[in-house]
User: Fold this.
Amino acid sequence: MLDALFKPKAVALVGASTKELSIGNVIIRNLLTYGYKGEIYPVNAKADKVCGLKSYATIADIPGEVDLAHIIIPSQFVPQAIEECGQKGVKAVIINSAGFSEMGDEGVKLQEEFLANARKYGIRLFGPNCQGIINSDPELNAYCNFTFTFPKPGSISVVALSGGVGALIMQVLDDLDIGQRFYASNGNACDVSIPEIIEYYGDDEATKAIILYTEGFDKPREFLEVARKVTAKKPILAMKAGRTEEGAKAASSHTGSLAGVDIATELIFEKIGVLSFHDEGEMVRAAMAFSSQPIPAGNRVGIITNTGGPAVIATDVLIDFDLEVPKLCEASIARLQETQFPQAALENPIDVVATAGGPQFRAALDVLLDDDQIDCIYINFVTAPFTDTDAVAREIVEVNRQRRKPMVCNFMTNMKLERYQKTMAILKEGEVPYYANPGDAARALGALVQYGRIQQRDIGQEHYFNNADATRAAAIIHEASQSGREVLSALEVYGIFEAYGIPVAPWNVATDVEQVVAAASEIGYPVVVKVDCAEIDHKSDMGGVAINLKNDVEVLNTVTEMQDRLGHFGELGFLVQKFLPGGRELIIGASAERELGHLVMFGLGGIYVEVLKDVIFKIAPVTAVEAAEMLAGIKTAALLDGVRGETGIDKEAIIELIQRVSQLLCDLPMIMEMDLNPVMAFADEVFAVDGRIRIHIDN
Amino acid sequence: MLDALFKPKAVALVGASTKELSIGNVIIRNLLTYGYKGEIYPVNAKADKVCGLKSYATIADIPGEVDLAHIIIPSQFVPQAIEECGQKGVKAVIINSAGFSEMGDEGVKLQEEFLANARKYGIRLFGPNCQGIINSDPELNAYCNFTFTFPKPGSISVVALSGGVGALIMQVLDDLDIGQRFYASNGNACDVSIPEIIEYYGDDEATKAIILYTEGFDKPREFLEVARKVTAKKPILAMKAGRTEEGAKAASSHTGSLAGVDIATELIFEKIGVLSFHDEGEMVRAAMAFSSQPIPAGNRVGIITNTGGPAVIATDVLIDFDLEVPKLCEASIARLQETQFPQAALENPIDVVATAGGPQFRAALDVLLDDDQIDCIYINFVTAPFTDTDAVAREIVEVNRQRRKPMVCNFMTNMKLERYQKTMAILKEGEVPYYANPGDAARALGALVQYGRIQQRDIGQEHYFNNADATRAAAIIHEASQSGREVLSALEVYGIFEAYGIPVAPWNVATDVEQVVAAASEIGYPVVVKVDCAEIDHKSDMGGVAINLKNDVEVLNTVTEMQDRLGHFGELGFLVQKFLPGGRELIIGASAERELGHLVMFGLGGIYVEVLKDVIFKIAPVTAVEAAEMLAGIKTAALLDGVRGETGIDKEAIIELIQRVSQLLCDLPMIMEMDLNPVMAFADEVFAVDGRIRIHIDN
Assistant:
């Protein structure tokens, strides 16, 4: 429970300062300005008073109980301060001070020291190198933070890895006049983690939606498991920055903890239904809609407009978000004919025209509310100078109050004019989410619809194939690991595949020419022969693969030639395999991700993966629904169904194959990389034709 | 010259009204509110005064000269009013009234009537069904418009097809406190056109940048030619809505003039260097940067930040816009070491840290100004509560005043606090383009860099191949046209290709089996045989193509079989052609676009065009530079260079081929559609292997 942190009854400030431009002063002023209802205890041995409050020489001197302390002193004194907090019975500490893990070895040592002290007393630590928290509950008004935005109470809770972005989000929400509930930015996050905060927000009934800013996760699996439960209850709107290589470099330079472009975070978002944004403004504007509107039951939008062009822009954007703009039913059109001006366009968008007043808007709104083909409503409302704009706003508000269908409003006006300020105030008071331009309003509605889709999506459960022989596969890996081989032999790879029921083309291994010829005859011509040698990792590039060998003589000549040419690499083994021409070449791959598990990749092989990079990733375990999404998600999905009169491939077999690969990976976490490349797919069967497994070996 | 419209010395209002909520009243109040320096003449027979001004019974009664008149009366009276304007000597008329071409046949008739009257007197007409114009020149203050935004003087001029979007753009500019020069929204545009207005803005020295909103052009070629000259002088920032099918439908329903998704407008923007936006907010925020900043000489950005996360977000977005974030040179880093705090990150982004004040910001700015590897500057400036933010703002302004390198600033603050309002005022006064979040600032800088790239781009001139036989090709088309054949025969298609030096595989035509065999022998085996029959348009789907025929017997059997199976369609001819296996299959196509000329298409043939739609379009004439851009622009461009050890194709030959196709199209405008499909490309030669031409026939 993080109540001591988010709902403190008394706050001590170790490092309270009388200097106006110092954090130890700003936090106290913020607490006072915001009207904190608990006790504030400045700790400063040199001052009698700080910001008019009595100051204490040490924490021990504080008369009352303290559940939360800020620490704002140079890093070398922090371990001792934590010790004193422990003795005082402080339950949570926000360490605002910097100079720890982000500053190299010495800082890391200090951090370990104060963490040990905290554990001794069961203190939860927030930070270090962080801003703090805010709780806007009017019963508490806890502004334990040095930022400058004073949010009004509301239902949006924010958590941000970066204090700068956190402050920005809080500010933009406030500029939009959106109330906020909790705020947290935990800097180096040595103890209280973002997943933990998300869980806390998830359990908080007053939080309706969560905004998250991150640059990656130290423990992505922990986030995945926690956030999965939260998204089932309420929306998480998230932005992960550091998408580009340069952005990731900038991120790692300021957090000191993460590096490299990770695709895993976006995949986590997708898997568990976190709404992912690439633009911070768009995310916050979407939150505005979530804070007041119900979730749309579907993606069919009815548009009401009193001006042409903005409806065109909105339509484009709504379509980009996969909304539909359906035709209105005849009954709806008939009702519109009775109520709208003759110049009105009685389609969807409904153009009520610029002269439309309250009655015309209201009639159009009622038609959309009653039309079963419409799930949500988009309104363009320009304050035409020749209409009673207040009356229009009042009708929109009345319909909004019914909460029958979600709506957003693009409200185009001059806010400098008193007349329109009044109109705006009506919309605001009526909790209509309104935006300054059509694109912004449409994107916010798009996010609502997207969350509706997430709520309805069920990726199902992982299927466990009972005929998998996990013991056999584990034994193979154990043996390779024992003998220090990171890259498994063909025999081992195919053995593992067979253990998991992954279909492979008929095969055998051999160590000399005679054995190869014998194996080929047994398998039946034509065959493929591949060298199998730990020293030759990329055998195809080395000329170690010969396809479509049709008889004993061809096999004999090929193997002899390979022995001559490649023998100096080490002892050559050979893999003999049935040659299967004419199928569709696919690739299935996997890689282990730090602290997360495996990513599974699917795509078309050959130039499609090499040139087009046309592949889809999912996080294991992959369900049948997700596997089907992988097949449908590649740009060249049509090729799986066959083009130009070809027959398609056996997609169900591929979906099963992906699930079996997923099960294999979950059972064998020591696999670092695995490729089934190619998988040859035919109309009624599929085969892994080549495979490669690299494992992790403990040194 | 549109001076009478944009710089009127006296404005008459035919339809002036005493009713407050009417257009005929609002326009007069707007003129008065804005402080119009010319004469205002209300025309209203029933009132003595309108808005305190003397009213006249008829236009003829007006004592002084009138160069501009508004007409705000029911549509049926407009032709007579124009007649009276003509008699009075009015030079330009804004017809605000609706009820013309957008309202069906009767409206069209009225429009023709008043247009005839206008031509008789040489009156220029603006509208009908429009808002009007604004000229913010303080010497004139002409607010000939019924909207509600009163722009301050500035250097951005706006033209919008949609009044709603035009008003929105004007309002957002004003919200950002950006000055504006001209505004125009011309509705149905029966006379004065958007290209004409763009030309006028282009010639206006006080206009530094132009914002254009459109949903397509009635005369795209006119726009292309006009705007091409303007973009060489000043930037045009444009948004074309109706990108999606549904958006285009919404657009056509409110303009009544355009339909269907057109790709041509975006291609025009690209060809002539108009900056294209898909978001109206982004476009206007970019205009803010253009209104004060020089154009970057290159794409290398230096980032200064006093907070980590927003620099990560900015970096991501800048990289999306193809900017580079280069390492700083050693001299720069050394200078930073001397001037920055120890915790600062002396990389790019330069993190001056939250405690940085004016001196630290200034020193970092000076380093970026002096570093030759940096073309432009991005600043994150969060108003940390423990710094002198005014001092920081003053240093940014001083550097901005030097105009040495363009800069944008993401200014993150709470504008409700007086302290920061002051900081903001310093930035504003100093003409620093500042934005409320990192993405917005980065996108604005991205647009500046993009325009710098446009200014440096030279697509060169159309090359005219002198060995083209235009006369022969025109004669072929003339004959087909005379005999009423829209789809040309193979003989005709290949004749035209040969006339333009388009390489085709050796070929001949024949009408019976013996001739086919003789032709095949002469060309040399293997050959392809295709039926050639006007009734069979898609011969491949009909089984009318046989490839890789190796000898006389195979040809004989094939042709006999085709005659039996397809003879009932009509008289069959045959095209015999050299079979050329093993090349890369390409497609070059062309289609005529209404009022524009031809679009030329290039892509890889087969599944690449069918499944991936991986094609690039350009507007003819296509220069060598543009043809090279087409080859480089497809997603599968790597295939042209060869993958997996293949040799690449002869790209120069394809570039020449595209130019020859372009020349052919420009010479023969009656071609509606043309395909070279496939073109077979090899390492050192290319051939059109099949072709199809459809022409326009006048009835």
Summary: Chain A touches chain B through 93 residues (CB under 8 Å).
